[in-house]
Amino acid sequence: MYFIQKSLTKFHNTHSTGFLDPKELKEVQSQLKKKDYLIYYPYPDSEKNILYSGEIPEVLLYEIKSKIPLRHQDILGTLYSLNIASEYFGDVLLIENHYYVYIHPFIRNYFEANFLKVRNSSVEVEEIPLSTLENYERSYESLELIVSSNRIDTIVSSICHTSRSMIQEMLSKKEIFLNYEILKDGSVKLREGDTFSIKRIGKFKYVGILKNTKSNHLIVEIKQYK
Question: Does this model's pTM top 0.85?
Answer without folding.
Answer: no
